[in-house]
Amino acid sequence: MTHATPVRGELLTTALALAAAGVPVLPLRPGKLPFGNCRACERNACGGRPNMKAAGPCACPLPCHGWAAAITDPAVLGSPEWARAWRDAAAVAYHPGGADLTAVDLDNADAIAWAHTNLPATRTVRTTRGEHWLYLGVMTSANTVRPGVDIKSSMSYARWLGPGTGTMTALPDVVRALVVKKPAAVRPTAITVPAPTGGGTCPHRTPTYLARGIAMAEQRITEAVAAVHATVFATFLAVLSTHGRCGCLTEAHTARLFAAAQAKGESPRHCADAWANALTRLGL
Fold it and tell me: What is the pTM of this model?
């Protein structure tokens, strides 16, 4: 299914109508991505927005902070500060959790077939590649809970593609169970890698160098607003390409990276798989 490119004025009209119905909205730039933070809010230097549970409210009048920019205030949505964002926007997004909703994002025909077999019927919205199944209720968001299936609810955004069809039902336990961590979840372990060659002292054993690298990797994962799974893998790959061959990394380091990824919705299994795939890619 294809969707016609909307006129910019229509985007704001749609956003205002949703906001009036209590649905927090924000503009998306081309690529279905939120607008990046302004200079004053880079790296959350402003303290973040209140609904991000950060330290202190952000008073920035621009649509900063990804999903947390979603609001229902018509005065802000139509303000001069947001005018440029709406001019450059390609779509309207909404924060499902802020509207007491959970969207099960089914990305292909196989995922849709799985949903018809395993999930209770509810309101359905057609997307460019599949469907969103909307349920009443809020839960933790997570990516790739199974092939072609993402959960968009709290601390997430979804593109608005219309109200959909069908009667919305309460969020079922079978959907909540998709992101429940199992007791036997994989835990990060110490990494066994080849010892440094040449018999010299490993340059990465300088505490400051290694600590800075791990901190930068954590920050990269934490600041991801889209494609979290790909960002986690790329970050693991970068860390291992720099520190993986000399024996610097400890279980404490991998635990920090796994914790950052899990805070963004990745499961322990996905973290372990991404780490193992990165090791394989580098031949470690």
Answer: 0.62
